[in-house]
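Here is one chain, start to finish.
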Amino acid sequence: MKNGHWRPFAAAGIVVGGFCLMATIFAVNLTDKSAASRDFIGYWAAGKQIVRGANPYDAGETLRLEKAVGLGNLQIKITPSPPIGLALVIPLGFLDAKNGLVVWLMAELGCLSAALGILWLMQGKPATRIHLLGYFFAPALACMMAGQLGIFFLLGISVFLVLHKRRPFFAGAALLPLTLKPHLFLAVALVLLLWAAWRGTPAVLAGLLVATTASYSAVFGFDRDVWSQYAEMMRSNVVQYRFAPTLSAYLRWEIAPGAVWLEYLPAAAACVWALWYFWTRRDRWNWIDHGLLVLLVSLLCAPYAWVTDEAVLLPAVLVGVYRAIDARRSLLPIAVFGAAALIELYTDVRITSWYYTWTAPAWLAWYLYAIRKKDAPRVTAKNDPAVVAGSI
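Its structure:
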């Protein structure tokens, strides 16, 4: 076999070896208390409750489970995710907290790697390996440190982008993880519905519907009262007075802290803008050129979000990098934004801090800077073709 034919096998071996090494490191160093100190513990507790046929939104029982594995004096972590996507946490219910965290982190690492590979392929396999810098994208790292969901959203969006033309059914099914935090994607969901109707591609919606139906059926099989339990949890103080560093939260807490509806005003404005933005580009709509901007605006205006959720914006950041390279624009802005976010993350600035409010606007600003069209060269008497032709 020629030397070149060994390269895929060698690369696969390196990847498998690396994953085995990471799994070993996690298994040796992590403990139940490591799980309890992360947001992951809320998803683990929900999985435990579901497989027992109990209420996954029961604050008292969730707190008992979390304290049993070392939560201590930390605040209770209870998932606000609706039932339709909770099948994704069911496997955690069959594991103890430590092993559940190991599996969760390895799944996140695998999803991040797969998403970066997909984005690299979508750009035509460029010789540069700049996409590997995605492993140092602060929101993705924060997501793994907290055991949050953003990387699963990232893989779903990446698969959708690469499959929506050739395999629309599977592209729609890949969006299932987004149902765990639907409030982040309100503008995206609106555009998806309009796009599917305008282009006559119901297979995308069919794929999402089948995936959510299967997921909900699995949860319903364990707990038939899950929707009423979810509604009760959403009305409780556990969720209504939870603080998140977003522009929407600024609006609410500065005007009327008790008025939860104020946090949805920016999201409503984003939906109106997205409706206009899609409709004026409906005949030439492109999910990479146009859809990523809608995704950025949707996250920016979300009523409730963390920096960990911004891991889903990595496609927009990387596409911006590739476009900036093609246009020979400076990469200094994204270097500064990325470094600043990493400094905050590794100087132990808590993700609940207001200091992370700037990150979502920063990724949007980078994308707009990177994709903007170059100004047409100014026509003068010296370079005007008509003038030049007339002088010959």
